[in-house]
Amino acid sequence: MRSVKDILKSNVLAAKPLNADLKFTPYIDPDYPIADQNDEMTTEQIKPAETLICPICQDRGIIIEGDVAYPCNCMRMRKIENQFRHARISRVLKNCRLEKFRFDFYGPGKLDQTHSEGATKALNAARSFVEECQQNPHGLGILFTGPVGSGKTYLAASIANELIEAQLQVLFLVVPDLLDELRASYKSEVNEMDLLDTARTIPILILDDLGAHNYTDWTRNRLYSIINYRMNELLPTVITSNLSLDEMEDYIGVRTTSRIIQSSRIFRLTVEEDIRHQIYDERERK
Q1: Which domains does the chain have, with CATH numbers?
Q2: Tell me: the pLDDT tens digits for 225-263?
Q3: pLDDT-above-90 percentage for the chain
């Protein structure tokens, strides 16, 4: 079985522009298993026309013109779909986009306008981060802080989704799950080092829900290893946390918190009412 690191390093040829006469927008059926880009498809495996996802290449991934063969544009769509899976973004978060950010959870009608001001600053920072990552792979990360249900994870997932669509390598890790994986790999040095190495070296890392978990000296050291390496190599990291900086020092340590501050721009999101509760009320009123 290939490791996460090996999968992320797999190469895909850039697709040649399609003939202008061919009008086709690729559609990827979520229920259709995407084949590996290096898999070969025989004539017998070609599906009937009515079930084809890409009628241009007959789902083979290549187009033949005379003696020349080149990748079909649908391969780019398949690559992006694979990137979403390898980035570990959950199904519910794949729909998050910065353009869909809802200010009505923070804005008019709320008692404290500082909620909308904080949301505006955080959204603008997220947009700038996405643009900067596409221009320069080395730079500052972002730390989104705030109470539960204030939109931190939404912004982090939106950043990840837009960078993946721009074909950048992203890894989205939920911190409690990461800690569980590290504990599970405690007796397997190879697996542990593979996970740590991937988290340390991936171009863009998202660490979601850095909260008041049951940290041990061992897990604190692993988090420090990831954060410290990325700071030294100028690899941007997006972190969400419901902890204040003082609380963060208590839970993950002063030296790790110090490095997060040094390598990040910090934005705080606040809401009058948990956004998930607001969404629930909307749904029930309908």
Answers
A1: 1-86 (no CATH), 90-276 (3.40.50.300)
A2: 999 999 999 999 999 999 999 999 999 999 999 999 999
A3: 50
Mean predicted confidence (pLDDT) in 188-203: 77
Which amino acid, residue 143?
A: L
238 DSSP β-pair partners: 142, 206
Q: For the segment 83-126, what is each residue's pLDDT rounded down to a tens digit?
A: 545 557 888 888 899 999 999 999 765 556 789 999 999 999 99
Q: Strands 68-71 and 62-65, how do they pair? A: antiparallel
How far is 171 from 40, CA to CA, in rounded Å? Answer: 28
Per-residue model confidence (pLDDT) at position 14: 37
Of 188 and 283, the structure prediction assigns the larger pLDDT to 283
Q: Copy the structure tokens of residue 278.
A: 């607001």
